[in-house]
Structures are given as C-alpha cells and as structure tokens.
Amino acid sequence: MKRIVEFAYKLASDEDVQKWQSAIANYIVHIEDEISLVKLQCALEMLMVKVWLGLLLGGFTLEQCGDFYYNQNVWVKSSEQLSEIGTVYPPIPKTIAFADASERRVPLALFDKNHPAVGVLKKIANSI
Q: What is the pLDDT along the chain (128 residues), one digit of tens a residue?
C-alpha cells in the first residue's frame, strides 16, 4: 500500500493536488450523506484522474458498493467525515469585489458591508 501511495504522489508531483483536494472538500461539505464518484466528478467538472488522486491523497472516506471496476459504485462520504478533523466552514463566495476592494485599499467589509462573504469571514475570524 505504501508503494502505491508513493507512486501516486510521484505521479501527481507536477500537478496541484491540494487544489483538487480543496475543490472536493468545498463541494462535499454541502452534501447530506454521500455522493457517487461520477456525480462528484461531474459537479466539479474535473478530469476523473484528478478527482481520484484528490480523494485518495486527501484521505477522504470512500465506499465501494459492487463491482470493483465500475466507478458508479464508488461513493464519497459527506462533510461529517471532515468535521471529525476540524471545523468545516461554509465556502467563501468568490466575486470580483475582493479585487475591487483591494484595488481601493480598503477591507471588503468597508467596501461592501452587505457582501455575502463578509458574514462567512466574520464567522471564521470569531472562531479563531
């Protein structure tokens, strides 16, 4: 098993595996229970190999229900698994307001106090 993990890391060494892991974590934090590998791949619009590597190298919980070679039978567990590791926060909405506020050299909360990211960022800051 150790050799397989080392091989996967070597294979992915030129890739941004952390980006893939982050995309997966940010998506599954919002699902109720579990999601099939194929549905996750479609939702993320990533190549299947990137999803697989992100899941395997990210320590996500996978469950196989059926034939080994049929990826429709692979399920990824929800964010409950992530909450055992640490606090899972909602995703921060991405908009150009961050760049606009930065360009004007003011915090986002002063630039647009009603921006949806402000509440999420306050929640994170208050928990630290």
A: 667 666 665 655 557 777 888 888 888 877 767 888 889 999 999 998 888 888 887 778 888 876 666 566 788 876 555 555 566 666 666 677 878 888 889 988 898 888 888 887 888 888 77
SS3 category, 51: helix
Contacts of 57 (CB under 8 A, 6+ apart): 5, 8, 9, 12, 17, 21
Grouping H, G, I as helix, E, B as strand and the rest as coil, residue 58 is helix
Tokens read off for 83: 């909450």
How many whole angstroms from its chain centre is CA 85? 14
Token pair 């996967």: residue: 8
* 11, 24 contact by CB (below 8 A): no
**CA separation (Å) from 41 to 23, 32, 38, 45, 46?**
11, 17, 5, 6, 6
